[in-house]
Amino acid sequence: MEFEMTQSVKVFAPATVANLGPGFDIIGMAVSEPGDIVIANHCSQPGIFIRQIIGDNGQLTMDATQNTAGIAAEFVRQQIAPHAGVELRIEKGLPLASGLGSSAASAVAAAVAVNALFGNPLTKYQLLPALLAAEASVSGQHLDNAAPSLFGGIVLANGTAMEDIHLLPVGPHLGNETSFVLVSPEMKLPTSEARRVLPTQILFSDMVAQTKGIATLIHAIHLDDVRLFAKALMMDRIIYNARKCLIPHSEAIIDLAMSEGALAGIISGGGPTLMMMTPDNTIAEKVQHTIREFYRQHSLNVTTRIVKIAVQGAKII
């Protein structure tokens, strides 16, 4: 098989808000920032080699067999150029264990970069198994982070096969008007720890309520209805109640944001990042200022960002 190869590729993959509202493990949304960058180059020795990682404070392994970027890259390489060699340089724009899909973004950027290095023989849908293999190594068999980071927008991932990944429409109201405030306290919350607190059994009434929430969320997205979308985000009866204790002041911060005009407040992924939905950028700036002041008064460090839905996913830059 012959490919139109290029010498070097640089790819950006965006952060994601997974477990979107009531959509635990099945609905995720890409956001405009932050994100990870992977640079891929050819090398003479067959295999995948991570040459450099910056932005991780030395916390990530350079072993390609243990790093999600390396795992995804190797999966793609084996499919399209098993005798070739590729070296990777990773720039972590995403904080680790933050609830923003850090491991998924690295995997997505690496898979897209290796594919592009050999002329894009695989479609984005055909990259999904590589991303699943990478995510399975750290957080389980689900794609609600990786799929939106790859495709952009809001994605329903109701399984792991290509036909299970559904790209939901992002209309002008949700896509252009609404702004989101990401609130990332200076703490780590590994996915494994966030999953340990989840209930193994739930009430039938909570199951019904959660189903209503998921249906309402998907319906709101199709209608491009901002208010209904916000209402649906807050219809999680199970996951938020189990995890809020892991994030100091989470309830107070969401209540504070709502008092300043936010339409909804949820945990992003497994946390500790919180996401506030606002009707416009003016309200977002007001919410951001108030939350920063709250953390200052409590002598706590926090990073806040105002973002939009990233309608484009991973891209060559």
Q: What is the CATH fold-level name of the largest domain? A: Ribosomal Protein S5, domain 2
Q: Mean pLDDT, rounded to whole units?
A: 96
The backbone outline, from C-alpha atoms, is globular
Radius of gyration: 19 Å
Report the end-to-end length measured between terminal Cα atoms. Answer: 27 Å
Approximate helicity band: 25-40%
Largest sheet: 7 strands, mixed
SSE-based structural type: alpha+beta
SSE topology string:
EEEHEHHHEEHEHHHHHEEHEE
Give the oligomer, counting copies of the same chain as homo and different chains as hetero.
Answer: single chain
Strand content: 15-25%
User: Are there runs of 5+ residues with pLDDT below 50, and where?
Assistant: none
Number of strands: 11
CATH architecture assignment name of the largest domain = 2-Layer Sandwich
- CATH secondary-structure class of the largest domain: Alpha Beta
Q: If helices are DSSP runs of H or I spanning 4 or more residues, what is the number of helices? A: 11
Number of domains as seen in the coordinates: 2
